[in-house]
Design a protein that fits this description.
With about 400 residues, chain A is of the alpha/beta class. Chain A contains 15 helices and 16 strands. In chain A, helix 7 packs across helix 9. Chain A starts with a strand and ends in a 6-residue tail after the last helix. By secondary structure, chain B is α/β, with parallel strands linked by helices. Chain B is about 35% helix and about 20% strand. Chain B has a six-stranded mixed beta sheet, covered by helices on one side. In chain B, strand 5, helix 2 and strand 6 form a beta-alpha-beta unit. In chain B, helix 1 crosses helix 5. By secondary structure, chain C is α/β, with parallel strands linked by helices. Chain C contains eleven helices and eight strands. In chain C, strands 2-1-3-4-6-5-7-8 form an eight-stranded mixed beta sheet, sandwiched between helices. Classes of the chains: A alpha/beta (about 400), B alpha/beta (about 200), C alpha/beta (about 325). Chains A and C meet through strand 3, helix 3, helix 5 and strand 9 of A and strand 1, strand 2, helix 3 and helix 5 of C.
């Protein structure tokens, strides 16, 4: 059914169609509307057979989900930003134990300074936690990724995080095709846990593992992610067959064939970038876009292949590893290997700073003229920086961040 | 693509206005995208909300900086912010005020815009009369519909019925009808504002 | 008590027989029965004389009997978790889940919710943790589980410190006790006064259905309290006193004696509460001064040498006296 609804509500309705049995909620902006809506759906009985638990913290939220999942229930929670950090210990625990929990991350910056607006710092902070991490480009994809996430999580016994840009998607009203319960039921069979706490067949979950087996356990977690790399496109294909639309998969290439410049990004900003790419093509620039959906597992080989025709690659990302640069750019660089392609890293949209078409166009034009440094902070207000650090320091920073890349 | 920016204060239903507008456009078979300015939502604080309406899917996610229309739900904002920044040369402006556009100090803007593209209506008063509460958003939207022809009244009514429960929806629809009539009259009489009636 | 049966005072049995097999059948513990569940099998790595291993075995077997073996246990990180599950071995014969140090209560809430939503009302949930995992790092999750009145019995095995990490102070460590982080040096050696928290009373403040304290000194009482707790639903809490010979500096064969002195001195009162009100307490049969208890453990040695610290011993005695008053521990028992 075609609907014009808020992103959070779309996610909530999509999750409800997946028939979760235990939902744990602790409020944090901008995730709140999602759990409010789910709470209402449980209370009205529209989502039946589901326990909605208001907990005292995000740490408890994911811990309750861990217990519920281990006891055989399809478990779901949602968080953002500081909330994700507050539950970090449980984030690692859920993946370590192979519990197929699905969590929505309404992406938001991490403080200090405190900031409630969108960027990807939260997701990047737990990128090594062993979860499958998917990024939605639109609210339609947000719904679809959740449906695929439950299937993927339960097939592989591993948790899946669906990243949805805070405010930009969660608070945006746009039209979505809400699948029917029948369609979702057909795609997503009831949860059959790989192992379950059952008095008739007692098992010990969460044992102490020493040096003699720990490396093997970690290796198996890595293998599981590599298996996911094969299952994600297969499930996206199956989803397309069932729902007649492309959602999910490893990434979405847009006009990348024969494109000399390809922009790589994740999440909602990909839409704006595609608009720019179209405009620039009209102006004679050969620009393509790759909207990366699957960040974990990271599709190194597939990206290398998709990017091979381009001479210049621009990575626009909403996160920063201070002292290193853009984490996504670093991984794309790794994907490119010894290739001669030039990589430009653009840090943009931090703490909700709008990423505009004009700014992206400026980036592409500077790349076309070989004028862009290796790493660029989009729309950085140098007056503010100057005031904070003083002239000498600024000159130093400029020297080191704006130098031309060596070819 | 038609882009609308709505300015007001927290508690005036600014975000709801953008939502209703997008739902109304959706009901007419168009694509629409509505989103708030994402501030901390405090009552009385300046708030902006955005709505894009297009015939094709909308991919753009940046805030609206070059609006085709600006709706001002609270005239006290007029002198605090540049509410009309980036407004298209043939853009529309609708202000919630019992004063004339000239009295609001917007003669310059009026001269730049095409005839009938800037109006002031006493939306709060109309809301008080018909809804019983000083929430001007629906009145302004209906006025906007009458002014621009961008959405038809039935689509707006449908959006109102989707959003509110029956009794509140009925009051809002009454307010919307009154506003539609008022703006239609104003434009027909070429007045552009309501000076004597309120 | 039935007519014709003799009231048996535990300390008079004078036997180390497990489960008091010399007692009348009715009065024997679950451990004395041949069909006991043996929730924690032998072969685990607990220290000699471990009070926690003993307390957990009695508590869980009683809970297993009360639930007909339909039970899931959740465990916080700590000694109990570490010594019972060195991969690939396990001592647990019931479904058992360990997640983290601070989340046992929340994980148990999740298990209970999952069982509820799957219609498995026959399966009961017990969560357990040490004092660190309960009164400190797990406190928020514990309080959350309490206030939601989730259907979980939480058992805290209190050995008054972080024994798993090498005997550091917790909020359950008593004043004056020496730990690795409250050394017996300086003007006020050991843990200071005016700190710590009384979690059983905090649990009562949540007005949950059942709160009790118990001790490995009275295993029969521990079993009875677990059995009673298992007959109820909602959030329940049992705080069990479990001496740690290693951490407390006491002989490994003194665990029960030390625990008994803790109760007989009233430093660890035994009581039950329902919905926030104390409904029963175990009276002290033969009161002993606190120093009799303190002298059994090296962690209090600095109170007696090089010279007696009269002032601080007196304050500890005042704490015991306050417990006697609060729980009416020296009342005349009604004779059978």
């Amino acid at each position: 059914m075609l609907k014009q609804i808020e992103g959070s509500r779309a996610v909530a309705e999509g999750v409800a169609l997946c028939r979760p049995q235990v939902i744990c909620a602790y409020p944090i902006t901008p995730q709140t509307h999602i759990v409010e809506e789910l709470g209402a759906l449980v209370k009205t009985g529209e989502l039946h057979g589901c326990e909605f638990i208001n907990v005292e913290s995000e740490f408890a939220a994911l811990s309750v989900a861990i217990g519920a999942s281990a006891a055989g229930a399809r478990a779901y929670t949602a968080t953002s930003s500081q909330g994700l950090l507050y539950m970090t210990e449980a984030v690692y625990n859920a993946s370590g134990m192979g519990l197929p929990i699905v969590m929505t991350l309404g992406n938001r910056a991490i403080g200090a300074p405190i900031n409630i607006w969108n960027d990807h710092s939260d997701a990047m902070a737990i990128r090594d936690a062993g979860w499958i991490m998917l990024f939605a480009e639109t609210n339609q994809e947000a719904i679809d990724l959740h449906i695929q996430a439950f299937r993927l999580a339960e097939e592989l016994s591993t948790p899946v995080m669906v990243c949805v840009d805070g405010f930009i998607l969660t608070h945006a009203y746009e039209q979505v095709e809400m699948p029917s319960q029948k369609e979702v039921d057909h795609f997503l069979p009831p949860f059959e846990p790989a192992q379950i706490l059952d008095p008739n067949k007692p098992i010990t979950l969460g044992a102490l593992v020493g040096p003699e087996a720990f490396a093997e356990v970690r290796y198996l977690a890595h293998r599981k992610q590599l298996t996911a790399m094969e299952r994600i496109p297969a499930l996206a294909h199956e989803f397309a067959m069932n729902f007649a639309r492309d959602s999910g998969g490893l990434f979405h290439p847009y006009k990348t064939e024969k494109a000399k410049t390809i922009i790589v990004a994740m999440g909602s900003v990909c839409g704006t970038i595609k608009d720019v790419a179209d405009d620039m093509r009209e102006a004679g620039h050969s620009v393509g876009v790759i909207a990366l959906t699957t960040f974990r597992p990271f599709p190194f080989a597939q990206l290398r292949d998709a990017l091979k025709g381009a001479t210049k690659i621009i990575v626009i990302e909403k996160s920063l590893t201070a002292g290193m640069g853009g984490p996504l750019a670093a991984e794309i660089k790794l994907a490119l290997g010894k290739s001669k392609q030039t990589l430009y890293s653009v840090i943009a949209g931090l703490g909700g700073r709008p990423i505009t078409k004009d700014s992206i166009r400026g980036i592409v034009e500077r790349v076309a003229h070989d004028e862009l440094p290796d790493t660029t902070f989009l729309d950085l207000n140098w007056d503010v920086v100057n005031e904070a650090v003083g002239g000498a320091h600024t000159q130093l920073i400029e020297k080191h961040t704006n130098h031309k890349p060596k070819s | 693509m038609f882009e609308i920016r709505i300015h007001g204060r927290g508690g005036q239903g600014v975000v709801t206005a953008a939502e209703l507008l997008s739902v109304a456009a959706f009901r007419e078979g168009k694509h629409a995208q509505a989103f708030p300015s994402f501030g901390s939502e405090r009552t009385g604080a300046p708030v902006a909300a955005f709505c894009r309406i297009a015939d094709e899917a909308i991919r753009l996610r940046e805030p609206i900086s070059k609006p085709n229309a600006v709706i001002v739900q609270d005239p006290t904002l007029l002198h605090s912010f540049d509410l009309f920044s980036g407004l298209a040369a043939d853009g529309y402006v609708l202000i919630n005020s019992g004063k004339s556009v000239e009295a609001l100090g917007l003669t310059g803007l009026k001269q730049k815009l095409p005839q009938g593209h800037i109006l002031a209506i006493p939306a709060t008063e109309l809301a008080r009369t018909h809804i019983g509460r000083p929430i001007p958003n629906v009145v302004m939207l209906s006025g906007f519909a009458a002014m621009t022809g961008l959405i038809v009244p039935s689509a707006l009514c449908g959006a109102i019925k989707e959003k509110f429960n029956l009794s509140i929806a009925e009051k809002n629809i009454a307010a919307a009808n009154a506003a539609f009539e008022l703006v239609t009259t104003l434009i027909a009489s070429n007045q552009g504002s309501l000076i004597e009636q309120c | 008590m039935q007519e014709g049966t003799q009231r048996v005072k535990f300390y008079q049995t004078g036997t180390l027989t497990v489960g008091n097999r010399l007692l009348d059948v009715e009065l024997r513990t679950v451990q004395a029965t041949t069909d006991r569940s043996n929730a924690i099998t032998s072969g685990h790595r607990a220290c000699q004389g471990c009070g926690e291993a003993l307390g957990a075995r009695y508590a869980l077997d009683a809970a297993m009997r009360a639930s007909n073996g339909n039970m899931i246990a959740v465990n916080a990180t700590g000694c109990l978790e570490v010594f019972s599950t060195p991969y690939p071995e396990t001592s647990w014969t019931l479904p058992w889940l360990h997640s983290l140090f601070g989340n046992a209560a929340a994980v148990a809430s999740g298990v209970a919710a999952a069982l509820r939503t799957q219609g498995r009302h026959d399966i009961r949930v017990v969560a357990q943790g040490g004092d660190g995992g309960t009164t400190d790092i797990g406190f928020a999750c514990l309080s959350g589980m309490f206030e939601r009145n989730d259907d979980v019995l939480y058992i805290c095995y209190d050995n008054q410190g972080y024994m798993n990490t090498g005997v550091q102070r917790s909020s359950a460590t008593p004043p004056t006790a020496r730990t690795a982080t409250t050394p017996a040096i300086g003007g006020e050696p050991g843990n200071i006064f005016g700190t710590g928290k009384d979690v059983p009373r905090i649990a009562m403040a949540h007005e949950i259905p059942y709160v009790a304290t118990a001790s490995v000194a009275d295993l029969h009482d521990l079993e009875a309290k677990v059995t009673k707790a298992m007959s109820m639903h909602g959030a329940r809490y049992i705080h069990v006193f479990v001496p740690c010979p290693l951490g407390w500096g006491a002989p490994t064969n003194s665990t029960i004696r030390v625990a008994r002195l803790a109760s007989e001195s009233a430093l660890f009162p035994l009581f039950e509460a329902e919905h926030g009100e104390v409904i029963a307490s175990s009276p002290i049969r033969k009161q002993v001064p606190v120093e009799d208890y303190l002298k059994t453990q090296n962690r209090f040695a600095h109170l007696f040498k090089p010279e007696r610290d009269e002032e601080r011993i007196a304050v500890l005695q005042q704490m015991a006296d306050r417990n006697i008053k609060r729980y009416d521990l020296l009342r005349e028992e009604v004779k059978a």
